[in-house]
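Researcher: Please translate sequence to structure tokens.
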Amino acid sequence: MSHWFRVAALVALSLVLSGSRCGEDEGVTLEVLRQDVAPPFDYSLYSDAQGRLTGKNSDVLLVYRSAHLERVYADAQQGDTRARALFGQLEAQAAASGHVVADQALGLVCTSLPNCTVRWQFLDELIPSREAGGMRLRHVFATSFERKARLKGVENAVITAVLSVLLVGAVVEMAEVRAAGTEARAGAVQGRKLVGSAGLAEGLSLEEAAALEARMAEAEALEVGARLPAQLEVLARHRPSVNQPPRGVAADSVRWVDYVAYWERRYEELAGTRQRPVGAPPAKPPLAWDGYNTFLGRFQRALDFQRDVARALRREAGLAKGERHLLRGLEQPLVAENVGLAHEGHAALTYVDQLVLDEVSLRPGQPPVVHSFSNKQRDFKSLSKKETESQLDADMQEALTKYGSTVEIRRPGHPLFGRKVTVSRVHLVYDEQGIPSTAREALAIRARKSNIELHFHAQE
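Model: Translation complete:
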């Protein structure tokens, strides 16, 4: 049995369930990996010339060293034989490890949420990379785990907890969800539900889950809410405890448990004992609880609005061409959400709210017709005309920079995956609730001058 296989078994055996048979934290630690200092990359650290794994713990170290893992994955994508063989072994081991964890999950005493919380953060640390290679291994692990777990009768709440950590990360909240069949649909996580001020009942594909994690991290980095001190010795005095929530917050509140996990991750990143994703900006100190709670509520509302716009686009796609408004002029629109876009000269992807491809334009020799949509909730009612125009200008510039011009489509399974395309039209969709009706026409005219099509959407 490989060391990676043994680690997965130890991880499964070490899960701590609040309120179940275990009263205190116990189990395997990751201190050895946390203290690892990666040497300069070299394939000989992990494999022989044919790509076969060699050396003690080489597989675990490669997976944990995010920059090295992403280098191997990138080389494999470019067709390098050694890299493909090496990464293929990691995929096989990730799949096998998913089965091991599923076997152990059946024996857990606590099988419902939020009455107890499964500590699956060990899995999150074992595959720290949130880039393409790391997410590929997470997807393989998650699909293998879910298939085996459902066949073994593991409760949906436990399955949801694992998938949320692996594919979403710092989730808004987790709740029990209805069964989604006996086997996971390839490329999708069934039965997940993110809940906050309102529910988001639709399942997320694996790629959408990765995009959600990235967008949540981006939004949190830009959050201007009150943050705790950056000095470690001062920050440590603010360490939260699952068993000591703030006044008015239940000890078994999933959002509070998420906050404690988020705080610990951020503390470790600041202390240098936990790796940041490749290309990520320096870690900021964690938000205070009130700011974190407010941020997640606002983030959930934004997700609800985005999903509502997507539903409207899909409804329009089913109408006759002449009856469409948001999708005006498109023959056969295909709507996708949270599609990753790569920009030349930039390592990080941007994730567009909705990307619409006119499938008729996929004919040979014809440039694809692609529209991008940026969704915003703004309250302009208390702003002056100048302030309103300034905010519109900022939103348009962001939409053009992130979702316009020439981009490479990075969504696996999309008809344009891996292709560089020029975005034909950029749309900006505002929540009409925050826009005075008297200002809408003037804003739309100003947007057209910047080659942006502006819409006002009433959320259902």
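Researcher: Any highlights?
Model: DSSP finds 14 helices and eleven strands in the chain.
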